[in-house]
Write a structure and sequence with these properties.
Elements: H1 9-29, E1 42-46, E2 51-54, E3 59-62, E4 65-69, H2 70-85
Antiparallel strand pairs: 1-4, 2-3
Protein name: DUF4321 domain-containing protein
Keywords: Membrane, Transmembrane, Transmembrane helix
Pfam family, one: DUF4321
């Protein structure tokens, strides 16, 4: 019996991650095409300058930047739809 309790949350996480990556890739490819340029429209947020921790022997750099585009949002929506049909 296939119910909502039997679905794996890791599968949903991996599908959403794949949707973000593929959507971002499609958005990056669509930047040069005039008819599909709207897919690459988005917002970038995060740390502009990475935080550097210099311990003399060890240097650790912390940084995070996230770019959300229309194509990545479409990818997430498609991955959720695919998950519902699995």
């Amino acid at each position: 019996m296939k119910g909502t309790g039997s679905k794996n949350s890791w599968a949903l996480f991996l599908l959403i991650l794949a949707g973000i990556v593929l959507g971002g890739f499609i958005g990056m490819l669509a930047e040069g095409v005039p008819a599909l340029n709207w897919l690459s429209y988005g917002q970038t947020f995060g740390l502009d300058e990475p935080i550097v921790l210099n311990l003399g022997l060890l240097v650790i750099t912390f940084g995070l930047s996230i770019k959300i585009t229309i194509a990545s949002i479409i990818g997430v929506i498609l991955s959720i739809i695919i998950y519902r049909f699995l």
